[in-house]
């Protein structure tokens, strides 16, 4: 049986490739669990210092595999609240709580939960030809995988509502212009740029990068006072790290820093 998620760890970058290209990498139960195991490994394995998530073939991910939800097979309607709790929400929480950077290379269409899994990542690059589609409205569902949260936070209500209610495809360049993603890049350059970014993050001061991720995620709901306290605590930890000592020493010695992620 083919692996539904390909996993590779090289030079500190854990690359996870969604791998059902003939179904546009639509998510099956097996794939959900493989993706989650990959992100969990990034939590547990100190050799992982950055994650790169992408898709095989012409799509990033078309969301839930609808073949697994065929109502023509009969039986009771599925409890989709339960499928979110079982399959989607733990993975979304694992991505957001990972103290290491997660780069997403959106190599093609990202629809439904596929779009929203991408938006949960820390830095999103997309091929110029990619599109983001909140496909849920087309099949009578609501945005999930954190989409109602991330779209509204990043874009504001007007754009979030229009995307979610119309399910209109959002081209990668417009997503970048609106600040929904980091960059749209030429299709042929996507993987080189995403890999180079992930590699450079993996060679970075992992502890400090993890603290930075936490600070930025907390900022949306914190008051300035709360955020200043959080910065103080985070800077205290960062200031005690070996990577901070190395960073300052390297600066003073006019050489590149050699961070060890601790
Ligand atoms: O269920 C729960 O647990 C709740 C959670 C839900 C989360 C969700 O993600 S709900 C949203 C599910 N996703 C969608 O509704 C998107 C469905 N797909 C599309 O709208 C289109 O395929 C795309 C816009 C993504 C791409 O269009 P296009 O024209 O480039 O490709 P295509 O021809 O539609 O698709 C190619 C093949 O992939 C095709 O199969 P075929 O004809 O070659 O045998 C198509 O059926 C298959 N495919 C695409 N998306 C899915 C899929 N098969 C199963 N599930 C899919 N989601």
Explain the overall architecture.
The chain has 262 residues and is α/β, with parallel strands linked by helices. The protein has 2 domains: 198 residues, 2-enoyl-CoA Hydratase, Chain A, domain 1 (Alpha-Beta Complex), CATH 3.90.226.10; 47 residues, Lyase 2-enoyl-coa Hydratase, Chain  A, domain 2, CATH 1.10.12. Helix content is 46%, strand content 16%. The protein is built from 10 helices and 10 strands. The strands form 2 sheets. The chain has a 6-stranded mixed β-sheet with strand order 1-2-3-5-7-10, sandwiched between helices. Strands 4-6-8-9 form a 4-stranded mixed β-sheet. A hairpin with a 2-residue loop joins strand 1 and strand 2. Helix 1 runs parallel beside helix 2 and helix 8 runs antiparallel to helix 9. The longest helix is centred in the middle third of the chain and has 18 residues. The chain is globular, with a radius of gyration of 19 Å. The protein starts with a strand and ends in a 10-residue tail after the last helix. The relative contact order is 0.12. It binds ligand T3D. Ligand T3D binds next to helix 2 and strand 6. This is 2-(1,2-epoxy-1,2-dihydrophenyl)acetyl-CoA isomerase. Keywords: Isomerase.
């Amino acid at each position: 049986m083919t692996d539904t998620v390909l996993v590779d760890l090289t030079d500190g970058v854990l690359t996870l490739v969604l791998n059902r290209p003939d179904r546009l990498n639509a998510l099956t139960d097996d794939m959900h669990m493989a993706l989650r195991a990959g992100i969990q490994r990034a939590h547990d394995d100190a050799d992982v210092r950055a994650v790169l998530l992408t898709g095989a073939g012409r799509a990033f991910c078309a969301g839930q595999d609808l073949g697994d939800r065929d109502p023509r097979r009969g039986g009771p309607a599925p409890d989709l609240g339960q499928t979110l709790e079982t399959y989607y929400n733990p993975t979304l929480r694992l991505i957001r709580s990972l103290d290491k950077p997660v780069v997403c290379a959106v190599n093609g269409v990202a629809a439904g939960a596929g779009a929203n899994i991408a938006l949960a990542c820390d830095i999103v690059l997309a091929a110029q030809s990619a599109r983001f589609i909140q496909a849920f409205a087309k099949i009578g569902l609501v945005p999930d995988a954190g989409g109602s949260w991330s779209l509204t936070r990043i874009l504001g209500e007007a754009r979030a509502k229009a995307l979610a209610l119309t399910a209109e495809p959002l081209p990668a360049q417009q997503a970048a212009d609106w600040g929904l993603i980091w960059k749209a890049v030429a299709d042929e350059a996507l993987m080189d740029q995403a890999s180079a970014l992930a590699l450079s993050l993996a060679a970075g001061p992992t502890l400090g990068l993890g603290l930075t991720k936490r600070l930025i995620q907390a900022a949306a709901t914190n008051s300035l006072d709360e955020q200043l306290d959080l910065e103080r605590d985070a800077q205290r930890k960062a200031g005690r790290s070996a990577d901070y000592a190395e960073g300052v020493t390297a600066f003073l010695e006019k050489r590149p820093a050699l961070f060890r992620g601790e």
